[in-house]
Amino acid sequence: MKKYVKDLVVKQVEFPHELYVLLKLTDSEPLPETFPGQFVEVKVEGSPQTFLRRPISINFVDREKNELWLLIKKVGEGTHKLAELKEGDMLNLVFPLGNGFSPVQKQGEKVLLVGGGVGVAPLLDYGNYLKAHGANPVFLLGARSKSDLLEQDLFKSIAPVYVTTEDGSEGEKGFVTQHTLLNIEHFDRISVCGPKPMMVSVARYAKSSGTPCEVSLENMMACGVGACLCCVEKTVKGNVCVCKEGPVFDINDLTWNI
Predict the structure, then answer these.
(1) pLDDT (tens digit, 9 = 90+) per residue, 121-141?
(2) What is the layout of strands, in order, in the sheet containing 60-62?
(3) For domain 4-97, which architecture applies?
């Protein structure tokens, strides 16, 4: 898939949570082809401490409105600077990068999409893709509390949504792997993105139940093209760059202790 370096216009800025910003970007011409699970490398202007681009998952692509969404958690100076962008500002991206989630395997397949924290971001676009191509996605989202759940209305507009919160303020109390859904439903496959401990737990469940599973890794990816070697992950095939070979991997290709 061809990669582009483009200046996109900030069309809209939203703050779904005090720690997050949602940037809706557009261009004067149709946006390039992307696939759910891919990411962009963002150039952060006006931040002397941010020398390298920042990798951000593609949250959603609205072809009708010609919009590409980035859901960004404010963590360091670079992401806080991105949260200061205003409508009409320009943002330079290198995209689309990496290999995304698997395409639809068969009509009517039931796919469980599990996300935690900002890891829910790429699942919105993937769920929309699955539904549009004849699959039946189901979302299982985890968070610390109700206030930390992101884009719930958008997820619900696509497919059924199940929730766990650590404090029990919404959905079932506990972690995603403790949700009763996993005991009463069968899924053809599972796709996961979120904190590594959560992904390992889901991978362990998938392996024990014989369910194919893929995970989207969140290793630091500075260049996005496999040149800087800072995102290397050990796999059964040797060390690979997550930005180039991933970020999505079949759990059987990883060396996790599951």
Answers:
(1) 999 999 999 999 999 999 999
(2) 54-57, 39-42, 90-97, 4-17, 20-26, 67-73, 60-62
(3) Beta Barrel (2.40)
